[in-house]
């Protein structure tokens, strides 16, 4: 499967900056220092030969579905600086939990794709309440701006509870054929469920890239990469807590295991 002009399977690391100014968890770190830390973390990821990154304001929790203006501005600043310093890396943008804002940032900085994690189609209950599909608004934004940034949508993000859940194959087909996603992310509660999900979805969206969106570890990624076109990893290479910085040794272990599984 060809993803971002490459035929090999894609291995991505999440870059999750410190809490941004205006968010609940932000204390006194200036945006310049936040940018510098994100650049250092991206440099380490690049040294470990990851194919790319997804920049996500994960540390801004709790958030609503609509991003605040300052979050969009700061994410644009961070992502632009990373893009300028590391143009060779594949770059995705993920805004918690606003796909319209994410696409806006991605288009502004020339990112390779936007990931819409909560919520592209359907409706889901999360800690932020009921989130509803943004596919119509995202399609309208693409039309207005002429954006060609590919949209990669999560199918039933593992931390939400879908309302009126459909079989995973039907939900994947709907994302691609009715809501016009260019690629998909999916993940189950464990590796066995993730494999079961992609086995069910793959026949329905044969020509669509499907990435593993969560649950990857140094122990299971070799097996999982036999089924998925790519993977994004965060928690395991941060020693089990996404608030931690990336552990260089765990990053090295993960990339080696993922390459073995994807070969």
Automatic annotation (TrEMBL):
Transmembrane segments: none annotated. It holds the Pfam family BtpA. It comes from the Bacteria. InterPro entries: BtpA, RibuloseP-bd_barrel. NCBIfam families: thylakoid_BtpA. Belongs to the BtpA family. This is BtpA family membrane complex biogenesis protein.
